[in-house]
Write a structure and sequence with these properties.
217 residues, alpha/beta, Creatine Amidinohydrolase, Chain A, domain 1, 2 domains, six-stranded mixed sheet, two-stranded antiparallel ribbon, 48% helix
């Protein structure tokens, strides 16, 4: 999906798009809620780990990365408790990004990526923390104006564009949707065949979940 997004950015006059994933949310003390990625981010990347940001650079030259992922690095100790991490090298190789960096480098790299680009595209107002980060990056670029570096002159809300893109499904997406529909129908048929007077709702739910899990959904 990143290729079509970059094409749209070029057609709209160029610039840089920033798409972060959702943030982890603490439940209490040392326990987090189960993490769920941001849907827009996942649509463009297929990447499900937290602490990640996608940057699309429509103005990148042939020798510069156009689709860049910032993510967590490998950490054997953390992976023991939190599960597998791709790391920047693994994500670059496995998922087809032009480049990948540690999420710790985001604040360092973003002013460089924004420099001399005409526009910045991101989800305006969706996160006070992201808005603050963006302001900091733009300030860092404008501080270089004396040496001829130009900051983006336009900031554009990216979400309406992504909403339009997500309305149109490619062959792979259509196949996934058909498979999901088939599994859901099978699960409901099993629940109806099992249902008897006096059964509890959780017993019917168990039949649904059994089919979902057995079929890999």
């Amino acid at each position: 999906m990143t290729a079509s997004s970059r094409r749209w950015l070029r057609e709209s006059g160029g610039g840089v798009a920033i798409i972060p994933t959702a943030r982890e949310v603490m439940r209490n003390r040392d326990a987090d809620y189960p993490f769920h990625h941001d849907s827009y981010f996942y649509y463009l990347t297929g990447f499900t780990e937290p602490e990640a940001t996608l940057v699309l650079n429509a103005g990148a030259k042939a020798d510069k990365p156009a689709a860049i992922l910032f993510c967590r690095e490998k950490n054997a100790e953390h992976e023991t408790w939190e599960g597998f991490r791709y790391g920047s090298d693994g994500a670059h190789l496995a998922l087809g990004f032009n480049a990948a960096f540690s999420i710790d480098q985001l604040d360092t790299e973003m002013p460089r990526l924004l420099a001399d680009n005409p526009a910045l595209h991101y989800a305006l107002g969706s996160s006070a923390e992201l808005d603050e980060q963006v302001r900091g990056w733009l300030v860092a670029v404008r501080a270089q104006s004396r040496i001829g570096v130009k900051a983006p002159t336009k900031v554009i809300d990216l979400l309406p564009v992504l909403d339009e893109m997500r309305l149109i499904k490619d062959t792979h997406e259509l196949g996934v949707m058909r498979r999901v529909g088939t599994i859901s129908a099978e699960a409901h048929q099993r629940a109806m065949q099992t249902c008897r007077p006096g059964m509890h709702e959780y017993e019917i739910e168990a039949e649904l979940l059994y089919t979902f899990r057995r079929r890999g959904a």
